[in-house]
Amino acid sequence: MKAYQKITPQNFKAYGKIIHYPCKMKKGKVRNLWRIVHCEKAKVGWRVAYLVLRDRSIGRLESHPFSDETFEPLKGRALFFASRTKDVKDVQCFLLDRPVVVRKGIWHGLVTFGAETEIKITENAHVACRYWPLPFRASSSFDFRK
How crowded is residue 61: how many other Cβ atoms within 10 Å of its Cβ? Predict the structure, then answer.
């Protein structure tokens, strides 16, 4: 066995793949980037996605009624908004500083706490999305208790 080596797409290809966002645009762009980076081919499987989060505020939350979902921060800091109901008084905000599994049916949304945040997401291969438009824009400075 040789001494350790740095993983590259080429030298790791026989064993798997690196989870990253291919061809990421230069910083300063304001749009989020999201791409599926791995998908199991089975009839009922799962997929891995890479999110480059650039939103500093959001106007809606989303929910996946049939899929749990992981959010695993890789770079930067993000805020995670979550609610079990469609009542703004129930929305909670968390600093996403560790990987989490979000149960199916939970309303959720993310905003970056800096220029951008990179997050790995794992979910069912086929995901149904529901959207809940908020009556305001949620951001790191919004106080839901009002």
Answer: 22
pLDDT for the residue 104: 87
Q: What is the pTM of this model?
A: 0.76
**Under CATH, which architecture does the 9-139 domain have?**
Sandwich (2.60)
Which secondary-structure segment (H or E) carries 12? Answer: helix 9-12
Residue 40: per-residue pLDDT: 64
Q: What does the chain come to in residues?
A: 146
Give the span between the Cα atoms of 45 and 63, in whole angstroms: 19
Summarize pLDDT for 41-50 with one digit per residue, the tens.
666 778 889 9
The token pair at 85 is 């109901």
Count of CA atoms in the C-beta half-sphere (13 A) of 101? 6
Tell me which residue has tokens 């706490």: 113
